[in-house]
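Researcher: We are triaging several targets before committing to wet-lab work. For this one, the compound of interest is pyridoxal-5'-phosphate. I'm pasting the protein sequence and the ligand SMILES. What I need is the predicted three-dimensional arrangement of the protein with the ligand bound, expressed as structure tokens, so it can go straight into our comparison scripts without reformatting.
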Amino acid sequence: MSITQLARAQVQALTPYQSARRIGGQGHIWLNANEAADSGEYRLDCSRLNRYPECQPPQVINAYAAYAGVSPEQVLVSRGGDEGIELLIRTFCEPGRDKILICTPTYGMYAISAETNGVGIVDVPLRADRQPDFDGIIKQLDQVKLVFLCSPNNPTGDLVDSAGLLRLLDAAKDRALVVVDEAYIEFCPESTQAGLLADYPQLVLIRTLSKAFGLAGIRCGFTLANPEVIGLLLKVIAPYPVPEPVAQIAAQALNEAGLATMRERVAEINTLKATLAEQLRQNAQIKDQVKEVFAPNGNYLLVRFAPGSHVFARMSQAGIILRDFASKPGLSDCIRITIGNSAEMDAVLQILQQEQ
Ligand SMILES: Cc1ncc(COP(=O)(O)O)c(C=O)c1O
């Protein structure tokens, strides 16, 4: 038996998540992973690196709870939002028996984490208006343990409709957990569903420092939920999931100055995003190449070009790496552009304005 054949059948069959880093690409302007263009400065105290870190560093938990407007018992910190997603699946889904529900097109890790753990997937695709099909989801509630929604949705940018979410939460009571992934919520903070956590124990939120906080490199994310859910996740999480340097940097990112820096970054990105959207729609040399600019709620814009492959190739040749979604159902000719800094956005516009 070969070494590969020794692996779990599920793993042998698995296609790993095609992260921006794995896909790679040659270029000097990286606008393919919804990262921030800058990261900020942090101090590190290395005097206690000989000690294992706290499983849930209190300075990080308390600071995030204060920032998110919840109690510390409602917060779990993990290696990125991705680990929060995986922990939920490992905690609530029996391999080979249980299923999660996703609404494609959406963030790919829900499906990958389920597959890796031998958990089934029910896909209830987004409706034509790109909202979750709440009636369709409610019909499936007895078949699934977790419902994953993403708001703003990656890659389409749409926010989950609050009335629909409330209807789903009422229907899900004592049947399934509803996970709302708010990885990009800092770009539209008024749309958070955190206010519902107190009344809906079946609601879970995923958050991250990777986007608005500019800290994708430290791998730090949060799960917000009622203390019973958090307690169950803490049974499954690794003993030391948050390295000491990560905890130190996260605590600084969440102090008053860190939050101010984050909010400045968000304001700048939102301004650059509005300018890009306007140019795509109105610039005489560009607008004929653009069929549709999707909802602008994250640190990215999904754009349907005419045709997408052409734009993608021109950008690649110029060293600008974007993310191609053309192969995803309903997203033909769609490319996602991360909002970088102003020079990077100028470079994108310049390529679009060039004679073809
Ligand atoms: C919707 C969504 N959720 C979660 C994540 C994962 O974030 P993290 O870097 O915290 O693992 C991402 C990353 O791109 C994302 O787009």
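Researcher: Any quick observations?
Model: The mean pLDDT is 96.
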